[in-house]
Every structure is written in structure tokens, then in C-alpha cells.
Specification:
The chain is built from 15 helices and 13 strands. The protein is α/β, with parallel strands linked by helices. A hairpin with a 2-residue loop joins strand 6 and strand 7. The strands form 3 sheets. Strands 1, 2, 3, 4, 8, 9, 10, 11 and 13 form a 9-stranded mixed β-sheet that branches. The protein has a two-stranded parallel sheet with strand order 5-12. Strands 6-7 form a two-stranded antiparallel sheet. It is 41% helix and 19% strand. The longest helix is centred in the N-terminal third of the chain and has 18 residues. Helix 5 crosses helix 6 and helix 7 packs across helix 8.
């Protein structure tokens, strides 16, 4: 779509939206299951603090699903905010612009870590990224060839790991957590195992070679979870030796039922994530449709409230729930960027 057509589409959408704005008086939010509990806390507190506005409606659907809905257009029939456990991709931003969502504001809320946990009845587990890669990769390199993953038990990979069947419940592809898992565990584990270069020698296309490193097995040892973390927890309840992949906050709020593994010798915690010691951490975001600010009642106030010290500071209820607060200067910058109207 060329610039003239894009501008025209955005103008038509904006005019149509302004005319129908009064039909909706409640902020609509969807997206990341990791950000979901934080957004719900803010929504509930917001309605108590600002009784003139209805509490925002917060739904899940995964980062990818939330951004897809967010980028579908402007108007009362589209959501105002997309929660995300990763940064928006270039192609997603282009899809936004093509649909008339030409001004998108990015808001970072803090940091989180991805943890690996089993039922609390299990012994302590210490993982390296290569252990998880070798257990869950669809194909591994053996004798100079790519072969279907032959491992059945964790102990076959590392004798220090439990002598139980490999069973892992990982977020499905629509979740931002999955992408961080692929980047910081599968890709890193592939490198640690010495497979990255070997695969490059076997697969000529660079993108296909990179995809081989992060592709997970489909033989039942690894199961994609498309729902939220409660579904993963239910799977672990049914299989006590199964491994679940969670956000730190969810684990901490279920620590009585779960035992967390170390990664590269580091225990996940707010302290190790804030210091950068824990290797599997990521920033958390939400994205705001600028065209809806000043049109949907309470949207601007919700964003300002969410980014206040009261909500994302180190002594906030979000921090108490598990959010790792961004450094002081970064929090100031977050608020300044939104107030100035900065867009992507």
C-alpha cells in the first residue's frame, strides 16, 4: 500500500471512529498471558481510584493474538491496548499501519524471567540450556547427520538429571514467552551443544538452519500449551515429573506446588533478574493505539496510572506480585515517552 492510500485509509478510519466513539465507554485490552495478571491488578485498582471510569476489560490470547487484534484497525470494534511479553515485530507494525493504525505507542512496564519448574515432590534440578535443547529439539546432530531426537529420559542427556521420561509443557507459538524460550534456551543450547555450526554445514539456507535449532519435537515429549499458565499447571498436576515453562510471577504465586530449576547455576528471582545474572529474562510491554487516546474514556488515565510509581515502582503491588521494576531512570523515561506522544 503506498503512502497516499495508507494516509487515506487512516483518515477514513479515524473519522468513522470519532463518529461512533460514544458507543463504547470502557477500555478494551488483550494479549500476553504473562502481562495479564499485572494488567488485571492495575484495572481493578484503577476503577477504585477513578470511579468516574469503568474498569478496563482485560483479556488474554497471547502476545501474537493480542497484537493481531490490536493491528486490525481503529474504531470502537477494535481493542485499545495490546499486552506483550516481547517487543512488537517489524512486520506486525507494518500490518498495523496497513490497517490504519499509524500511530502506536510502546510502553515498557518492567521485566520478568522465564522459569522451568516441576511438581514440588521432585528433587532439585539444575539445567544448562544445552540440556533442554537436547531434550526438546526436533532433530539433533549425531555422527555428522541430523536425526530425529532419540532421547527418552532426561538422564540420557545428563546423568545428573532425573531418570524420568522427558515431558515438557511449553507455551504455544502465539505466546511471546515461546519466542524468548526459543531465543534464550533453544538457540543458546544449540550453540552450547556445538550443533549450530554443524547444522549450518548440513543446511545451506541460513534461515532454515536457524529454524532447525529452535524447532521442538512433536512426538509427545514436548507439548505446546495454547492457553494460559493455569493449563500448564494442570498438566504438571497430572504428570508430576513433567516440566512446565512459566513466567516468574506465576511460579512465585504457586511456589508451594512447584519446584523451580536453576539455569546455568542461577536461581530465578527478582534479584537475579534485576541484576542480569539470570539468563532467561525479558522486558514486558503494552502497546497503545494513539488514535483512541482522548476518544475512549479513561484510556489516557489508565496508561498514566499503569506507569505511575504506585503501579510499577519497586514497592508497588505489581512488584509484590512478581514484576521486576525497571531502574529509576528507565521508569522516568517510560513516563516521559508516553507524555510526549512518542510513537514507533
Amino acid at each position: 500500500m503506498n503512502i497516499v492510500k495508507l494516509t487515506a485509509a487512516a483518515l477514513v478510519a479515524s473519522v468513522a471512529f470519532a463518529g461512533a466513539a460514544a458507543a463504547r465507554d470502557q477500555v478494551q485490552i488483550a494479549g500476553s498471558s504473562t502481562v495479564l495478571p499485572y494488567a488485571k491488578i492495575v484495572s481493578e485498582t484503577f476503577s477504585e481510584t477513578f470511579p468516574a471510569f469503568k474498569a478496563p476489560v482485560v483479556e488474554s490470547g497471547g502476545t501474537g493474538g493480542g497484537l493481531k487484534a490490536f493491528c486490525s484497525g481503529v474504531g470502537e470494534g477494535t481493542i485499545d491496548v495490546a499486552n506483550a511479553s516481547r517487543a512488537i515485530k517489524g512486520e506486525e507494525l507494518e500490518a498495523c499501519k496497513a490497517a490504519g493504525v499509524t500511530e502506536v505507542q510502546e510502553v515498557k512496564i518492567g521485566y520478568d524471567g522465564i522459569v522451568f519448574a516441576m511438581d514440588s515432590s521432585n528433587p532439585d534440578v539444575k539445567f544448562e540450556p544445552k540440556d533442554i535443547y537436547l531434550a526438546l529439539a526436533a532433530e539433533i546432530v549425531q555422527d555428522g547427520k541430523l536425526v530425529a531426537n532419540p532421547y527418552k529420559k532426561w538422564s540420557e542427556i545428563n546423568k545428573e538429571l532425573p531418570d524420568v521420561a522427558i515431558a515438557a509443557y511449553i507455551p504455544g507459538s502465539k505466546h511471546g514467552t515461546r519466542e524468548v524460550f526459543e531465543e534464550k534456551i533453544m538457540a543458546e543450547g544449540c550453540k552450547e551443544a556445538g550443533a549450530t555450526d554443524a547444522i549450518k554445514g548440513l543446511v545451506a539456507d541460513a534461515k532454515q538452519a536457524a529454524a532447525k535449532c529452535v524447532a521442538v519435537r512433536k512426538d509427545g515429549a514436548s507439548v505446546d500449551i495454547d492457553g494460559d499458565y493455569t493449563e500448564t499447571l494442570a498438566r504438571i498436576d497430572a504428570n508430576k515429573t513433567g516440566l512446565g515453562v512459566f513466567g516468574l510471577a506465576f511460579y512465585e504465586n504457586n511456589a508451594d506446588r512447584l519446584k523451580v530449576a536453576t539455569i546455568s547455576g542461577v536461581v530465578p528471582s527478582t534479584e537475579t533478574i534485576a541484576s542480569g545474572k539470570y539468563p532467561v529474562s525479558r522486558p514486558l510491554f503494552f502497546y497503545v493505539k494513539k488514535a483512541h487516546l482522548g476518544v475512549i474514556p479513561g484510556l489516557k488515565e489508565y496508561v498514566e496510572f499503569f506507569t505511575s510509581e504506585e503501579m510499577i515502582g519497586p514497592d508497588s503491588p505489581l512488584a509484590a506480585y512478581g514484576l521486576v521494576a525497571a531502574p529509576d531512570a528507565e521508569r522516568d523515561e517510560i513516563r516521559s515517552n508516553f507524555e510526549s506522544g512518542k510513537t514507533l
